[in-house]
Specification:
heterodimer, A: 399 residues, alpha/beta, Rossmann fold, Alpha-Beta Plaits, 3 domains, five-stranded parallel beta sheet, four-stranded antiparallel beta sheet, 9 strands, B: 109 residues, 3 helices
Chain lengths: 399, 109
């Protein structure tokens, strides 16, 4: 089972630490597809025992882990059956439990076990499920990746879409948030109706109550403050005409480009790391960018916005960060607006086109590799997988 | 009702209406001409921002500053909130699906 350790090389084995997560199913599919592409010849799904053999509850936990591993191997078999171009016998799927002889505490313990297991089985690759957080510690994956980076193992995260976490949308319910939502919806209702007509007032109170009960836990992150909110609204009122002017300007430029018979567009995907708060500020900024024709926010990853630009002019405007500065002004005031532009901060990157500075960040490499694999002839398929493999390995770092 | 309006106001209504038409037309041309889903999403937002914007401005001017005019301003506000959200949702879905944006030299999709 030895292999030469080059990422994406054919024939190596891979170890995948798993637990029951929403993305586990997709991770299994990704691994089977990678194996079908020739990246791996054996997939080891391992579960770290959270018990020690002989503990009072060990039997129960062991039974639930066994059920999990059974499920995973069923999934893997089903996926292997779906992939017709590969000889199913060529891919070996192993499921096992490790670490049953001692308690594991931190990331280092897990990594030690993983390295030992890999050494025993001649494995040089690790693929992580993005949602994998052993012992339910949400911060562990980061340090797990860090600890793994100091080993000889080749690590990457399975490029699968994370599910929407609905739990995060629900916030604390407080009286002031309820009152704010209630007041706002009542005011809106009466603005559309007649505030002096009793029927409208009664139905308005009823519907505002319904809205406040259902949405006050969702709409507001924090209690609206009586001092800060009006100031922000005032600054927002200053911002709106500026935004209108920007929209008008870029509309004209883009209209000219579209109506030009040669249509001189030069689209590219770009990255810009913005310094605005999470939540409402970054939403405001991303929406402003999208509202301005010529730039379109595709993805927000941590502080990074992936912005598609239609023409270099729009990209330059984005990198000059005028909208970012205005957003900071609206939310944090005049001093906060004085910051170097993203270009000066070196917080920008271009993924495509002649001026590209960074590699294109695939969202799901499996979708891309399938197409490429279909397009290229036999000899170069290995190259395509290799390129995909290294891309994935790099994607782990920024997340 | 139009007869009662002053000539300046009438002229503004016509100008705004024509501007709205123009940008809606540009947006339509863009959706037809541009090469891929991302660039089309750019220009689709043009119809919503300036196309609808100018048209609603014309409506507000024609309706006057009473109830109807106020409501068109609200309408504009909601369009400006929902339009980028929808455009972003489309672009993000395309990105998650692994669609690589068109660049110069690619085949038109």
């Amino acid at each position: 089972m030895a292999d030469d350790g080059v990422p994406g090389s054919t024939g190596g084995s891979v170890v995948v630490p798993i637990e029951s997560t929403p993305t586990l199913r997709a991770t299994v599919t990704h691994l089977v597809e990678s194996a079908a592409d020739g990246e791996f010849s054996a997939i080891h799904f391992v579960v770290f025992a959270t018990w020690r053999d002989g503990d009072p509850e060990a039997a129960d936990r062991e039974a639930s882990v066994d059920r999990l591993l059974e499920r995973v191997s069923t999934w893997a078999e089903a996926d292997l059956a779906d992939v017709d171009e590969v000889d199913v016998d060529d891919v070996e799927v192993v499921t096992t439990v490790v670490g049953g002889d001692e308690y594991l505490f931190g990331a280092d313990d897990y990594v030690r076990e993983l390295v030992a297991y890999a050494g025993d089985h001649g494995i040089e690759h690790v693929v992580l499920d993005p949602e994998y957080t052993p012992v339910g510690n949400t911060t562990l994956l980061q340090s797990l990746e860090f600890a793994l980076s100091r080993t000889d193992l080749v690590v990457r995260e399975a490029p699968v879409a994370r599910p929407t976490r609905r739990e995060r949308l629900r916030k604390e319910a407080t009286g002031i948030r309820f009152a704010a939502i209630f007041g706002l919806s009542l005011a809106f209702y009466l603005a559309l109706g007649d505030p002096f007509y009793p029927f409208d007032v009664v139905t308005g109170v009823a519907s505002a109550t319904v809205v406040a009960v259902t949405l006050s836990r969702v709409s507001l992150d924090a209690d609206p403050s009586l001092t800060r909110t009006p100031i922000r609204l005032l600054r927002g009122a200053v911002y709106v005409p500026v935004l209108f002017f920007e929209i008008l300007k870029s509309n004209l430029v883009v209209a000219r480009v579209i109506l030009d018979p040669r249509m001189p567009i030069e689209p590219s995907l770009n990255r810009v790391r913005v310094i605005v708060g999470s939540g409402l500020p970054i939403t405001t900024l991303a929406n402003s960018i999208t509202l301005t024709p010529g730039t379109l926010t595709v993805r927000a990853r941590d502080g990074d916005l992936y912005v598609h630009s239609l023409i270099p002019w729009a990209r330059d405007g984005l990198f000059d960060g005028s909208l970012e500065r205005w957003t900071r002004f609206v939310f944090y005031g005049r001093e906060a607006a004085r910051l170097p532009t993203p270009r000066e901060r070196d917080d920008v990157g271009i993924f495509q086109g002649p001026d590209a500075t960074e590699e294109y960040p695939g969202a799901r490499a499996d979708g891309g590799s399938e197409r490429e694999g279909a397009a290229v002839v036999d000899g170069s398929t290995a190259d395509a997988t290799e390129a995909d493999g290294s891309e994935d390995a790099e994607e782990v770092t920024p997340e | 009702m139009i007869d009662a309006l002053s000539p300046v106001r009438l002229a503004l209504i016509v100008v705004f209406g024509l501007c709205g038409l123009f940008f809606t037309f540009v947006s339509m041309a863009g959706v037809l001409r541009l090469p891929d889903v991302y660039s089309r999403a750019h220009t689709a937002s043009q119809a919503d921002t300036l196309g609808a914007g100018f048209t609603l401005a014309a409506v507000a001017l024609a309706a006057g500053w009473d109830g109807a005019g106020f409501k068109t301003v609200l309408l504009l506000f909601f369009i400006f909130v929902t339009n980028p959200t929808a455009a972003h949702a489309i672009a993000r879905a395309a990105f998650e699906e692994g669609i690589v944006p068109w660049t110069e030299g690619d085949e038109r999709r």
